[in-house]
Amino acid sequence: MKQKLTIIFGKRSLGGVLSPVILVPVILASLLGSSPALEWRLLEGPPLEAEFQRIQNEAAYLKAQSGDLKVVELAAMDPASRQDAQRLWGEHLSRAVQRIDEAILNKLKEEGIAPNAALTDEQFVRRVYLDLTGTIPTYEQTSSFLTDRDPRKRFNLISKLVDGEGFVSHHYNYFAELLRIQDYVPGTYVRTDVFGDWIKQGIRENRPYNEMVYDMVTADGRIWDNPAVGFYLRDYDTKLDHVQYTAKVFLGTDIACAQCHDDPFQDWTQMDYYRLTAFLSEVESKDNFQRPLAKNAQKEIEQEVIKRHNVDMDAKDAKYELNRAMRRYQQPIRWMQDASKLVVREEKGQKTSLPDLYDYPDGKPGDTIMPIVPFGDDPEYIKGKNSPREQYARWMTSPENPRFALNIANRMWDRFFGRGVGVPLHNVDVESVDNPELLAAIEEEMIGTGFDLKTFALILANTKAYQRLASREKVTEADPYHFQGPLLRRMSAEQVWDSMMTLMVEDPLRFRKGDGGYYNETVNLLNEEGPMTAKEFFARAAGYQRYSSGLTNYVQMKNGVAVPVEPVVAKPGEEMMMNRRNKPTVDGLTYGDLLLTRASEQEQPSGNDHFLRKFGQSERNFVVGASSRGGSVPQIMEMMNGFATEMITKPDSMLFKKMDQAGRDRMKKADIVFLSILNRKQDEFERGMIYDQLKKGSEEDAYGGLIWALLNTPEFFFIK
Amino acid sequence: MDHTKRLSQQMDELSRRQFVSDVAKSVLGVSVLSYGGGKAFADTEVPPPPPGGGKAKNVIFLYMPGGMTHMDTWDPKTHPDSKGPTEAISTNVPGIKIANHMPMLAKQMDKLAVIRSMSTTTGDHAGGRYHMHTGYRMRPGTSHPHLGSWAQHFLGRRNEMLPDSVIVGGGNPGPGWFDATLAPMPVGDPAKGIKDMLPKLERSKFDQRVELARDFAYRFRKEFPHDDVKAYSDFYEETIKFFDDKTVKAFDVSQESKGLRDKYGNSRFGQSALLAKRLIQHDVRYVEVSSLGGWDMHGGINTERINELDAVTATLIEDLEAEGMLEETMVVMCSEFGRTPINERGGRDHNPGAFSVMLAGGGIAGGIAHGTSDERGRKVAEDGVSVKDLHSTIAWAMGLPLDERTHGSGGRPFFVGNKGKPLTKIFA
To answer: CA of A135: how far to CAs of A147, A171, A206, A494, A656, in Å?
Structure first.
């Protein structure tokens, strides 16, 4: 049945995405059941009789008796109706929280296990900042939370954090790893920054996750027209691999074995694999685009290059020298040709056929395969006039797909609890799930929020289960686990880096990666017509060089406005300030070779010897086991002797400046150090150690040593 | 559809699958399970390696990132399309000619085995590099171990104070599905060794800080008697060992005589090769040296780079021999793929169809040129060798069990060398 959808817009926005929602203790929860049809009064037009479904992004989703869906912005509602909607949604969320908690308590009771202790405020503030914003809280954030007397302060903080830019950055990191976002399409010089921006923007606007996935899976065009093609381009030459990777990431289903043979441990056949791939038969990712040079341009270019580089054409190695000089200009143009060639589109009539080595009785090599989904409904609606790829995307992202909502709910759960309700994440074994009631609850709540990841995060962070201390002992994936608390987790590489940034600079997210319109202006060879003249050739090459020189694609946020960064300009008679990698420096952003900004705004992924990689940041090649949370010698060396620790322990560091607030009170200074780094106060035993430490050497040495020691305890890395 | 109904349907489906695999595992035993095509299971068995391996106690893996031109190094051509700026010269082994840019190695041909019939499947740098370092094709699903990690997995760590494998000058795949203790240790700049990573404070002050950190760690360790926390504490102790004089010295090429340092040359590649030898001497098992880029010669053949390669490699082999280490140290020189005939810009483009690899020491018989490429150097002509064969050859020489199954992610079976055939005939 097709639903009719009407959207009713309001005149103004009400502010934060979740601000109107109030969580209330629900006593009558069970009485309410499914919401009865109510009358909704609007500021304009006749009232609606409809069943309340949810609030999402400041709009109420109402289901009329006809089955039609009405999306009414809260701002378009009569105040009384608006309050009704907010109350109903608040109750719904409270029920969701309660349902999750009950599912866990039921299981723990059955197993005869007590839940872990509830988190203290100190433990809570550290954990919730790390999980919602990707970094430890600052000294000020920690203290203001600890001194807040509002009994609802935890709820308030969670609501605030899911709406902030830290949430965008932290969430982006997760998807960048999952989607293997690299700065370049592998094997090409086509930059993918705009795809990363697209993901960030989607998170910022809180676009429903199912819609974002649908857009990625069905995206057409070139990357500057439609950044979502970045998803397909990541695997642009390897369609077969792309299918199994998509299944792992979006359906929590591992069909990899079946790419080459029937899966011996599961039931996927190679035929299943090819039938699924057949949905993408018509997807192409390249065309033959080529902008030729104008007549005589080649000659003019050569003459100009000879002139610019003083190539001695009579010398013995003239040809070699000229080639070398030419390369500086030709290469950027070739990269642009490549970028213009990469286009995702559907080419009718293409088929998928069985591979040469196909060796099962149900087909023979070369047979054309028709698209059929391997599981879930193959409902009517996906047939019809949509392209096979659209059918595939609809099947995949439908709430009716048995693995789609389950996968994302389970992945998000894992982020908060250190383990999925179903394991492993990329191939959830529903059969062996320890707590099916819990899995059903999170899957349904994911659907109930309309795949709203912010609201889902808000639900999880408000559960009592989340707000319990981590379990003391290691639990492997093979061990059953009942969620008496989250698992003890080492921070992700990005969380470690971002936490160091929080200790090093004010507001690390003030510097962000931006695209600066680079693609359309410089790379898009289609934005001008006809063959390329020598003049255009040089202009484009220069544009490329300016961009690839490094920092010109960064912006600084000033009062909410993104301003392009200004490299430090050389004084007359001085060389331009360059760091070792020959990139210009920018005040506040560059520090040696490093960029003092969050992980989400760094190179994607960072270079091999970067701090982030030492802590296990994914190389963005693999879906499973791509990042690591283990220790290593280079990592500890970095913490002991690296630049970040050096910058934090220096007497002119931001932390030392904060300590000045304490005047001459030495223990108060130590408090500031503790609250900044471990987000807690010291205990009696530690006080004694601090006294001893402060007697040693100069004050600077003593506090420097204290800071150093706290950064170098395992407690710093672990989320307890 | 009602959720419970959906879930139960799904479970029915999954239980059916589970049933099939449970029955298979418990009743039949996995290795004899061969319904359907059967190919899947034939793959899980590998014949035992031939006898005679294990002479290479150490490996120095010289890697030329970018795609080293085979036709201007080990496999010079006379065909006008392919010749380029290169002449073939005689070596000290009659009948084997190499490029004129490598006069020093030409005098050592009697110690070297060259494989001129390598080919691979990918012409993309990242994919080729990955393949050459792991023996496996890069796939989004699995991260495979570096050869050094495989060696440590089978043979154990050789030295308490030093890592078992080191990569000088460039990152490459890590320990794959093995844990982090099997990861190769990266060193960026050979001249600095691990100096950048050493404490910048006075030693006594540093030790004090370490002591304080240990004291602070106590409370947390007691609160969380967790394996991961313990592993972290162990890494602190492990790291402190690195600041030991003996370890620092092993990584310090300035401890070598000036004469020898000069002989290796002042280049980063030269100093890296010297560091590799020094680390092997100090009981590191597997050292990879990545030369700087510059091998991706689309726009012209840079013969200076080949001269440098010649001088450094010849010096390394000579030095290893002089120290009596060549017998048990295998030197491998390779790259992700080869290159095409000369293009319109006087350079060469990517060519996975044919390329060359050089091996010496560790039991290799010298004076061998194995296999050939066609007259234009585009494709393998005779006795082709694949990347997995090369990996199996090195692994065999190190005495690693090519037939021992290891389970990676998802329980899939993997073998060191990826079921390739060791090329035993190039050994003495």
So the answer is: 20, 12, 20, 8, 20
The stretch A299-309 carries a mean pLDDT of 91
Give a yes or no: residue A193 inside a domain: no
Contact check, Cβ <8 Å, A720/B224 = yes
Is the CB of B212 less than 8 angstroms away from the CB of A706?
yes
CATH class of the domain at B58-197+244-426: alpha beta
Q: Which of A111, A127, A154 is the last residue of a domain?
A: A111
- pLDDT digit string (tens) for A241-296? 899 999 999 999 998 888 888 887 788 899 999 999 999 999 998 888 888 889 89
Name beta bridge partners: B88.
Answer: B99
Please list every residue in chain A whose beta carbon sits closer than 8 Å to the beta carbon of residue B129. Answer: none
Give CA–CA dist B28/B207, Å, rounded: 59
- Determine the pLDDT at residue A485: 98
Residues of B in contact with A470 (CB under 8 A): 224
Strands B112-119 and B385-386: parallel
Q: What is the rounded distance in angstroms from the CA atom of residue B26 to the CA atom of residue A54?
A: 49
Q: Which of A368, A385, A402 is the last residue of a domain?
A: A402
Among the partner residues B37, B231, B236, nearest to A262 by beta-carbon distance = B37
Mutation for A interface: B228, B296, B297, most A CBs within 10 A:
B228
Identify whether A90 is part of a domain. yes
Residue A27 lies in a domain: yes
Q: What is the pLDDT of residues A690-713, one digit of tens each?
A: 988 888 888 889 999 999 999 999
- Domain ranges across chain B: 3-42, 58-197+244-426, 199-242
Number of structural domains (chain A) is 3
pLDDT (tens digit, 9 = 90+) per residue, A110-134? 999 999 999 999 999 999 999 999 9
How confident is the model over A375-430, as pLDDT tens digits? 877 655 555 667 889 999 999 999 999 999 999 999 999 999 999 999 999 999 99
The SS3 call for residue A618 is coil
- pLDDT tops 50 at residue A532: yes
Degrees, nearest 5: CA angle A667-A670-A673: 160
My answer on whether A102 and A244 are in the same domain is no
In a shared domain, residues A107 and A242: no
Joined together, the tokens standing for residue B376 give: 């234009």
**Which of A249, A261, A427, A640 is the mutation pick for testing B, counting most B CBs within 10 A?**
A640
Residue A525, in any domain of the structure = no
- pLDDT reported for residue A3: 57
Residues of B in contact with A266 (CB under 8 A): 17, 21
What is the residue range of A36's domain? Answer: 5-111
B300-332: pLDDT as tens digits: 899 999 999 999 999 999 999 999 999 999 999
What HEC string does A395-427 produce? HHHCCCCCCHHHHHHHHHHHHHHCCCCCCCHHH
pLDDT value, residue B12: 44
Q: How far is A227 from chain B (nearest CA, A)?
A: 21
Q: Do B223 and A628 touch (CB under 8 A)?
A: no
Both A262 and A398 in one domain: the answer is: yes
Mean pLDDT of the A68-91 span: 92
Is residue B282 within 8 A of residue B274, CB to CB? The reply is no
| Chain B residues touching residue A443 (CB < 8 angstroms) | 3
